[in-house]
Structures are given as C-alpha cells and as structure tokens.
Amino acid sequence: MLSFQNVTRVFGQSTAVDHATFDIDRPMMVGIIGASGAGKSTLLRMINRLTDASDGRILFEGQDILPLKGADKRRWQSQCAMIFQQFNLVPRVDVVSNVLHGLLNRRGLGATIFNLWPREDISRAIAILDRLGIAEQAAKRAEALSGGQQQRVAIARALMQDPKIILADEPIASLDPMNAQIVMRTLRQIHEEDGRTVIANLHTLDTARRYCDRVIGMRKGRIVFDGVPELLTPAAAREIYGAGHDFSEAATSTEIDALDRPEAAMRDDAYAARLLAD
Ligand SMILES: Nc1ncnc2c1ncn2[C@@H]1O[C@H](COP(=O)(O)OP(=O)(O)OP(=O)(O)O)[C@@H](O)[C@H]1O
Ligand SMILES: [Mg+2]
C-alpha cells in the first residue's frame, strides 16, 4: 500500500531523515516515536508533500507520489489528510465551515472565500461532527471549543476529505490526559471502522503501545525500531531515545491510568463518556 524506499531529506548540513525504508502493506495504526529532532515530522510531512524528499521513493499503491505536481499532487494530498498538534483551525470561523475546509483541495478557493457550499457537503460535515460527538458545537466559533473538541473538529475536517491515510503530527501533545485519550480512541475507531491507515507521531511510549498496531522508532533520522508494541522493551526504548541518556519510562509517559477521571467534565459529552467507559 505505502512503501518508503531509501527516503532521505537533507536540510543544509543536517540529514533530517536518513534512508528510511519500510512498507505498510495493509490498513493499520502506526505510531512513530523518537526524541525531539529525530525526524518524525519530516517523515510525516514528506508523505503528503508538505516537505519534499531529497532522495528515494514513496510509493502508494505502486505509484511514486514524490514527482506529482499540480492537480495530481492535490489529489494525492486529499487522500492523505493531516492533523496537527495545534489543530490548525480557523479560530474565528464556525466549526462546520472549518470542517468544510477539508474539501479545499477538491472544491477550490472560491467556495471557501464566499462560504458557498453545496447542501450535501454541509449535511455530510454535520454527520461527521455527529459521529465524533460534537454536532451541537457546529455553529460555534472554533475558538470557543475546548482543545479536545478542537482536535475532534480537525479530525472531522480530515474525514471530510474521505482520506485513505490520516497523518497526525503529535495530535495529543497539547491536550490534557482525558482529552488525549478521547482523541486517540477516536483515531483508533476511525481506523477500525473505516479501514483507514493512521500514522501518528507520538511523544509518549505508552500511547504508542496502547493504541498502535505497529511502532516505528527513529533516532537521528534513521529508523532504529520497527515492530509490534510488544517488542518495545526498555532496551529497545533506550536504543530509540539514546542509551547515554538518563532515560526513564516515566519521562515519556502520560500516566492516564493514574488520574482520577474528571466525571463532571464528561457528563455533557456523551461521546466522551461512551469512549472512556471501557
Ligand atoms: N525546515 C527546516 N529547515 C531546516 N532544518 C529543519 C527543517 N525542518 C526540520 N529540520 C531539522 O531536521 C531535523 C528533524 O526535525 P523534525 O522536525 O522532523 O524532528 P521531530 O522528530 O519531528 O522533532 P520534534 O519531536 O521536536 O517535533 C532537526 O534537526 C530539525 O532541526
Ligand atoms: Mg515534530
């Protein structure tokens, strides 16, 4: 499905991604971990062509996506939606319009500027918000929502593109543990129910272990671990994060289990309550 072949990205003197090679041969949820500067974002951004590779090939269903230009490049970008740590919503614009922005690659700029959207697009946007438990927020400005809700809007915007792949660059790094859990479960659910591949850069080991089918560990641009979470032993983790480091699991853990669940915060959010029930 998705194949990385010796993909390298050089910035001046430094090699951000160094001959990355791996295959994702079926829909799965992949976590990418590694210390700051290891190349995780660069790797992800090369997939949807936000960053160009210096060398190598990235094949999707047999086609090299690196040389794509113009309309072909935009078509590819709409197949691999990206979500970001800072949500990247338009804060003063209402939630449903933010979700409709997911169609930008397909519908062009005119529709966005004048807010002219076909009725069926609007219904679909609301149906997606409903699926993620935030339909009641549709008319509010994005900035009025909590961080966890904003990230769900960003996921809804990604789903609006009907992508084959969802790329998530540290999707929970700005969220409290409860909202982090809601967002990760939402991504997991989208993978399981829709069969979409999710590739997420994660800064905590326990999140990668808990939600991902496969973990790719990067160190200084190179892939130094690629396997199921069960193989992610403390020794493997030290290899990823650096053996000389004063490595401790706790330093990379969000410790969701240790928290008292803020039940009151969940009471108004039936979706969150259902997701967190098990
Ligand atoms: N646009 C750029 N120009 C120059 N150097 C860059 C650029 N983007 C990334 N780099 C460098 O490439 C390396 C990898 O950066 P990248 O952002 O991919 O790491 P990361 O693993 O995502 O780190 P973090 O966990 O801090 O987000 C770093 O040394 C970084 O300084
Ligand atoms: Mg990064």
TrEMBL record:
<dbReference type="GO" id="GO:0015416">
    <property type="term" value="F:ABC-type phosphonate transporter activity"/>
</dbReference>
<dbReference type="InterPro" id="IPR003439">
    <property type="entry name" value="ABC_transporter-like_ATP-bd"/>
</dbReference>
<keyword id="KW-0472">Membrane</keyword>
<protein>
    <submittedName>
        <fullName>Phosphonate transport system, ATP-binding protein</fullName>
        <ecNumber>3.6.3.28</ecNumber>
    </submittedName>
</protein>
<dbReference type="InterPro" id="IPR003593">
    <property type="entry name" value="AAA+_ATPase"/>
</dbReference>
<dbReference type="InterPro" id="IPR017871">
    <property type="entry name" value="ABC_transporter-like_CS"/>
</dbReference>
<dbReference type="InterPro" id="IPR050086">
    <property type="entry name" value="MetN_ABC_transporter-like"/>
</dbReference>
<keyword id="KW-1278">Translocase</keyword>
<keyword id="KW-0067">ATP-binding</keyword>
<keyword id="KW-1003">Cell membrane</keyword>
<keyword id="KW-0547">Nucleotide-binding</keyword>
<feature type="domain" description="ABC transporter">
    <location>
        <begin position="2"/>
        <end position="245"/>
    </location>
</feature>
<dbReference type="InterPro" id="IPR012693">
    <property type="entry name" value="ABC_transpr_PhnC"/>
</dbReference>
<keyword id="KW-0378">Hydrolase</keyword>
<dbReference type="Pfam" id="PF00005">
    <property type="entry name" value="ABC_tran"/>
</dbReference>
<dbReference type="GO" id="GO:0016887">
    <property type="term" value="F:ATP hydrolysis activity"/>
</dbReference>
<dbReference type="GO" id="GO:0005524">
    <property type="term" value="F:ATP binding"/>
</dbReference>
<dbReference type="GO" id="GO:0016020">
    <property type="term" value="C:membrane"/>
</dbReference>
<keyword id="KW-0813">Transport</keyword>
<dbReference type="InterPro" id="IPR027417">
    <property type="entry name" value="P-loop_NTPase"/>
</dbReference>
<keyword id="KW-0614">Plasmid</keyword>
